[in-house]
């Protein structure tokens, strides 16, 4: 069982300061990585106004090459307090994953990937879909709160419990996004 940080999983009510916390961190990352960071997005539940979440800011950083990112990004991000989690590569192929904050609870998750990687679009359109569809965001909130209560400190169970909803909603989001573009 993979334990969660420093105790039980907590899904907090939406905090209106989350976008500002993202904006502050975005500036720091942009300064650290310079032009190598092609884009920096706020993703995950803290990026959806009104959505309850674990109070962890998820950042998605687009880079031109993941292989080059291993050489150019790890040290500058570690200097900002991020901890590179290489063991997550098996769970998150095609990206570099970092955590920031005391050793649990974490305050930030950082995903570094190429914008052409399918996960980039999936994370962004999932966020945009939840922003545009409050009923889907409410359903997700209910699932997250139920899982937090039943999973205790088992982050694997919490994460896996969201999988079906996330996959189904991402499929809807991709179709919605394609229709909006046309």
From TrEMBL:
What does the UniProt keyword field contain?
Transferase
Supply the SUPFAM superfamilies for this chain.
Answer: Nucleotidyltransferase
The UniProt entry, under Pfam families, shows:
GrpB (PF04229)
Q: Quick check: keyword Transferase in the entry?
A: yes
Q: Name one GO molecular function term.
A: transferase activity
Keyword Transferase tagged: yes
Write down what this protein is called. GrpB-like predicted nucleotidyltransferase (UPF0157 family)
**What is the organism of origin for this protein?**
Bradyrhizobium macuxiense
